[in-house]
Amino acid sequence: MDARRTSRTVIDPKIRQVGFVTPGAPPDRTQSGPPESSSPPVADMSPAGNSLSPVMIPPPRHASDNLLLHASRAVPPISPIRRPGDSIAVGSYNQSDVFLGTSPTTTISPSSKIVDGEFSEELMSPGWAARGGNSGKVAASSFPSGGVDLMPVKSNIPSSSLTTVSVVNLPPGVSEKAGKESIEVQNDRAGSSKPLKEKTSKAERRALQESQRAAKAAAREGKAAGGASAAANPGNAKPANAAKPPPQKKDSASIAASEKKGGERPQEKDRKKEVPPPRMQFDDKSRVEKAKKRAVVKQTEARNRVELFRHLPQYEHGTQLPYLETKFFQLDPMHPAVYKVGLRYLAGDISGGNARCIAMLQAFQQAIGDYSTPPEKALIRDLTAKISSYVSFLIQCRPLSISMGNAIRFLKSRIAKLPINLLESEAKATLQSDIDRFINEKIILAVKVIVRHAVSKIRDGDVLLTYGSPSAVEMILLYAHELGKQFRVVVVDSRPKLEGQLLLRRLVERGIRCTYAHINAISYIMHEVSRVFLGASSILSNGTVYSRVGTASVAMVAHAFRVPVLVCCEAYKFHERVQLDSICSNELGDPDVISKVPGRKDVNYLVDWANNENLQLLNLTYDATPSDYVSMIITDYGMVPPTSVPVIVREYRREQLWI
Amino acid sequence: MWWRSASFILDKQIQQDEKEDFKPESLTSFSLSSSATPLPMADALPNPNFNSSTHDNIPKVSAYYQTRAAHHGVVTGDWLAQAQAAVCRDPSIDIPPPDPHRNSSSSDSGKPFSVIDEFNSWRRQPDLAEAVAAIRALAAVIRSSEATTMMELEIELKKASDSLKSWDTTSISLTAGCDLFMRYVTRTSALEYEDFNSAKSRLLERAEKFGEISYKARKTIAMLSQDFIFDGCTILVHGFSRVVLEVLKLAAQNKKLFRVFCTEGRPERTGLLLSHELAKLDVPVKLLIDSAVAYSMDEVDMVFVGADGVVESGGIINMMGTYQIALVAHSMNKPVYVAAESYKFARLYPLDQKDLTPASRPIDFGVPIPSKVEVETSARDYTPPQYLTLLFTDLGVLSPSVVSDELIQLYL
Fold it and tell me: Which residues of B touch A648 (CB under 8 A)?
């Protein structure tokens, strides 16, 4: 690998020169034309994915991101009808943008906040509509043209039509109470605005830029928008936690949802507008607080967390399940099928990337079957929001795997692509068959293809090593055995899950000769191995294999022994992200299970480890294997080197989204 | 760094003298081969697969290497015996092999056209690569086809390419060339034309274009690689590759000053042939025995090899000995360049040396070998991509990882 890289740096310019000389239509290039040219729109599909820093996991909500974009764009066409002035139009547009994107940032000066506070105090009695008008009036005073007085009212409404229309009929009591607190809100926001800055997405940043450009001209408007969002804030503060005003504008949006369908409802509108951070950073206190308030699942934070992994959620296991069970009848917006799947994730009943993904998709399928569009809503938007709320529920049960994220992205893009004039029943049927197709083609068939490819690499007399219990590898071994190949299997396992024992049992039942070893013995057992077959949770763009913890050490030992490492992974699990270590994104398991040894009562040295400040236990779920240790990746598109993962992602992302 | 001074040019005189000594010798050694050249291309080369499977008394020889030997005019004693034997058996064997193909390739009309014959007639041109010959033969299939629907034509083409591929399974470039042709020709909107005749002519046009491109590939590669040969460099060449020869030829024509180390290339002694060709071009050349590679590697600026096949990992399958040269070059930080036409890109992914379809060839040790002694007759090895620096192909100069990129775009 080294040689490859160094030499390339030396010769790069020459390649370019040479490329010019290359004849225009070599046979292969012409073939590759179409997919290349059509890839850009794909990139457009996921603006948030592109805007993310490479390390973060992009949110599985691209469709909603898109909606956000459209929403903010949709505003201007409404306003010019009512107002002739160009500058005004800009102002109103700007305003909406400010409302959506910039209010939590530091661009709003303290003075403006005070003004906002005044507004909300003075306006609390007339209610929301009047308030909008009033704050608008203040903004209007900055405009030179006459008769603009009314404008801001309208301009405010378009923006809120997407965000807070339903707020209009908020019970007056709520807004009054909220209004009283609004000054506090503002103060609080001043404090918390900085850490929030990181969460702006591409769309928001663009909005921010535009608004900043126009900020000097329409400074008041910014204030008005700030006022609007400030006013919006308390509305949500009430259902969530009246005493402690939320630090974030995001809540302004959630009013709509909470108002519409009760306080427990996890804010589908919320999802639509606010672009959540790529992944919760759990060492960010204010955000964790917020998330907790919204959470359906009550999770208790574990104590004594390992310093390096504080940004990952770690909960005490065993507490959520009974709690969720009691809540079953209160969580009406959650579809029972989704609920069931979530609980099973939580209990650990379903594990393994494919199983989890299929379970989730089937639950969504049922949910879509039972779905009916509420009056005055578009199926496309409402269903997307609904799916998002399901997803956030599932995330609370257990963080999503990358494969699930891809599946969700697929589903959302399907929803977004539905023709607008389709009947509801037709749309539902289309989506359900799409999901079926995804499960069949991308998961079940893909595994079959992988098995067929992989078997060609098993020769008589081979000793194959596998780690854990990857489903694809199991099928490969069984199929090779069916074909009558003579081989031996070494199953390597590790605590605490000991998944390998299940695999071992199934293999031995079929009459395959097996050896069972723990990962501690890997360097000893590797002598006799001729091939290593591994599964993967995901493969990232730089060829890094993101898989069950321990995979990296197996691959490294195999590499050191010059044993080829074959990673079997379906292409729908590929991801365009790049990750260099297993720290920045991972999943923490229950630390208790590594402190206990089942069946050994005498090993109790760590009984009350949680009370010891100096002791932290770390139970990681995944690790990242650098591509240098991987000889080959077997995927449904054939056998490719790890360097070709980005090619597959580029060429087939489109197909994965559209099928 | 490895941009050496052209000090060796000072030694040119001495070299010249050496060459004077060397030349008559080489001439004598090649007089044998040149006289033998017409012989090996005996009119109908028996189907080697057939040959090896039915007659166990003859050591298994890969057809690919037979062809190469014939093309390069390198004749070993074993090979001569082999050819002799083949000619003797000719009448008995020659009939059976074409028969199944004839049945399969022209099932509809029973006309006497055979892909294999066509292929063999093309192959007889010494300058034509096997894959290009196959491509031409397949184009001829389209031309002579009497199919009336597109589907029929496609099936016929498929059958022809399958029979070509099964004719010699050891040749990577033949298989890859057939596959590529099928891809290139059938993967076009031509098949959706309503009018069959226009579709067919379109297909034919494409086929001929592809043949043309493949034929010109060598020239393209030679042009591309000129930038990498600088004055005063020393190039180590292993085996006889027509592409590499073309590259060096063009470099010599461009008045570049360089010298070449040729490995001997046992057992076919392909290095001798190459050194002969280079000496004709007035390029200073030095012959090394295969085991002297590491010894002389510190003088070498770059290693230049051809390839039998380029596999999906970006590694190459090439004549035995390439792997060890690449390893030595890698450990001494010398760049290893591979010149290979894009029709040699194959959808193979060997994990290690033994993970290849075996291709064997006879080895003449000059002395009788006791029957108990085993002889490694494998003709080629696999060089993993991490030991290669760049691939010169007609698609451009590629790093090894791009090969898989191209293959994915082509086949999926």
Answer: 408
How many domains does chain B contain in total? 3
Using DSSP, state whether A236 is helix, strand or coil. helix
Phi, psi of A101 (to 5 degrees): -115, -40
Rounded Cα distance, A52 and A278, in Å: 7
**Is B342 within 8 Å of A27 when comparing Cβ atoms?**
yes
CATH code assigned at B311: 3.40.50.10470
A641 and B401 within 8 Å at the Cβ level: the answer is yes
Which positions in chain B touch A564 (Cβ < 8 Å)? Answer: 351-352
Set out the domains of chain A in order of their start, with CATH numbers: 51-279 (no CATH), 459-586+621-658 (3.40.50.10470)
Residue B1 included in any domain: no
Q: Is the ipTM of this complex over 0.85?
A: no
Q: Same domain, yes or no, for B210 and B323?
A: no
In which order are the strands placed within the sheet that holds A487-493?
A513-518, A487-493, A462-467, A531-535, A565-568, A632-635, A638-640
A 10 A CB-CB count for B333 gives 12
User: Taking a C-beta distance cutoff of 8 angstroms, is the pair A247, A188 a contact?
Assistant: yes
- Which mean pLDDT values do the consecutive 10-residue runs of chain A (659 residues) have? 40 37 41 41 41 42 43 43 42 41 41 42 42 42 42 42 41 45 46 45 63 58 45 41 42 40 41 47 69 60 69 66 64 78 84 89 90 83 87 85 89 86 86 91 92 92 92 93 94 89 93 94 93 93 92 95 94 89 84 80 76 81 92 91 90 64
Residue in the structure block whose two tokens are 């893909």: A446
Range of the domain at B152: 98-219
- Alpha carbon of B227: minimum distance to chain A alpha carbons (Å): 7
Examine the domain organization and report whether B113 and B138 are in the same domain: yes
For B180, the closest of A22, A27, A631 (CB atoms) is A27
pLDDT in tens, B108-157: 444 456 777 777 777 777 777 788 888 888 888 888 887 777 778 888 88
Interface A:B, Cβ pairs < 8 A: 124
Mutation to test the A interface, candidates B182, B336, B390, B394, most A Cβ within 10 Å: B390
Q: Is B87 on the interface with A (CB under 8 A)?
A: no
In a domain, B190, yes or no: yes
Q: Which of residues 176-205 of B touch A (CB under 8 A)?
A: 180, 183-184, 187
Q: Is residue B88 part of a domain?
A: yes
> Are B241 and B374 within one domain?
yes
